Amino acid sequence: HKFMPNKFVFPGGVVDRSDSRVHARASLQLAVFKRLKKGCSAARARALAIAAIRETFEETGLVVGKREDKLLCIQSPIWKKFLSSGANPRLDQLQYIARAITPPYRSRRYDARFFLMCSDRFILEQKINQNSTDELSNISWFTLDEARSLQLPHITRIILEEVEKRISTHSDFEVPGPFIHFRYGKLVRDWQ
Questions:
Q1: Cα Rg, the chain, nearest whole Å
Q2: If you count Cβ atoms within 10 Å of the first and of the last residue's Cβ in the chain, which end, N or C, has fewer?
């Protein structure tokens, strides 16, 4: 509610210490992993992807994983709750869409990574939090057309455009994505 009040945003947040201790059985696609680790260590790259799965679960109740007989053993309370769904987190179907750093004039700044995953691949719906959470006040599904009519931050519009391009061209994991940041007060879009 505090970071972007009255705006529709994607679930997300910071990497927790426990995220670097989660060893998903299905790893990131090699092309995704190579792109994601630009500017950070291999361990940090994996933790960023794991954090995306955890934050999605924490904020929405959606499990990005696959049911498996043998579950990971993780001490973190939120990861224990995730595993109680009977699924392990899976990274192999995550597409790395983009990276964005909030403008320097913002009071709260983030270096965010955005991921995409087809909803028919390894997403197990728990009871989706329809009510307000500490961070989100409304959790809903929208088509791309519906989303464009919502109150969205500028960066969310940019990411949705990138998602639409990837869907319409059936892009694979190797397609580079934008790195959106500011240089000398101007928005810059590099590719990685």
A1: 16
A2: N
* pLDDT tens digits, 38-97: 989 999 999 999 999 999 999 888 889 888 899 999 999 999 999 999 999 999 989 999
From CA 165, how far away is CA 154, in angstroms rounded? 17
Residue 130, pLDDT > 60, answer no
Confirm if 6 and 72 have CB atoms less than 8 A apart: no
- Pick from 23, 29, 14, 16: which is nearest to 171 by CA? 29
**What span, in angstroms and rounded, lies between the C-alpha atoms of 67 and 71?**
9
Structure tokens, 85:
């769904």
Q: 17-191: what fold?
A: Nucleoside Triphosphate Pyrophosphohydrolase (3.90.79)
